[in-house]
Amino acid sequence: MPGEIRVQGLRELSTAFGRLSAELKAELKAELAAAAEPVRARAEALATSEIRNIGPTWSRMRVGVTPGVVYVAPKSRRRRGSPRKNLAPLLMDRAMQPALEQEEPEVVGLLDAMLGRLSDENGF
Q1: I need a labelling partner for 42 at 20 to 30 A (CA). Which of 59, 66, 95, 123 fits?
Q2: How far is CA 22 from CA 8, 16, 29, 119, in A?
Q3: Taking Cα atoms as reference points, which of 75, 72, 86 lies closest to residue 4?
Q4: CA atoms within 13 A on the CB side of 29
Q5: Which of the pair, 6 or 70, is modelled with greater confidence?
Q6: CB 62 within 8 A of CB 73
Q7: Do 95 and 51 contact (CB within 8 A), yes or no?
Q8: Which range has highest mean pLDDT (3-7, 16-20, 33-37)?
C-alpha cells in the first residue's frame, strides 16, 4: 500500500507487551502516537495550504493507534453523504500522503529510538 511505514511484528509486539504489563502496553501505544505526531501536524498544515476552502473543521487531523496500525485521519466525520465528494481524495493526495513522505525520516528515527529505549528499559 502506498504511503505507509511498516513495522514488522507490531501486532505481536503489542500483544507481548500486554502480557508483560498493561503499563508497558500503554507506554508503547503512547510512544507510537508520539511518533505519528509530526505527520499529523504536517498534514494539517498541508491541508490548509493546499486545499482551497477547506476550513478549520476538515483540516484538523487525529492520530489513531490500534494493536497493529498507527494512522492519521481527519478529525471530523460526516454521518451522511458529503456535499464535497472530492474532499477525501484531496486530503489523501494533497495533505496526508505528502505529509508522510516529508516526515518519513523523522518518524523512522522516532520509531527506532522508541524501540531501542523500550527494549533497554525492559531488558529485551
Answers
A1: 66
A2: 22, 10, 11, 16
A3: 72
A4: 14
A5: 70
A6: yes
A7: yes
A8: 33-37
Dihedral of the alpha carbons of 110, 95, 61, 18, in degrees to the nearest 10 = -40
65/61 Cα distance (integer angstroms): 14
Q: What pTM does this model have?
A: 0.85
Instruction: Share the mean pLDDT of the chain.
Output: 87
Cell of 7: 513495522
Q: How far is CA 79 from CA 34, 57, 82, 83, 85, in A?
A: 29, 14, 8, 12, 13
What values do phi and psi take at 72, rounded to 5? -120, 130
C-alpha cell at 64: 489513531
- Region of 82 (left: φ > 0; alpha: ψ -120 to 50; beta: rest) is beta
Distance between CA 77 and CA 22 in Å, rounded?
Answer: 31
What pLDDT digit, counting tens, does each position of 32-75 carry?
A: 999 999 999 999 999 999 999 888 888 999 999 988 889 999 99
Q: Looking at residue 92, what DSSP letter applies?
A: I
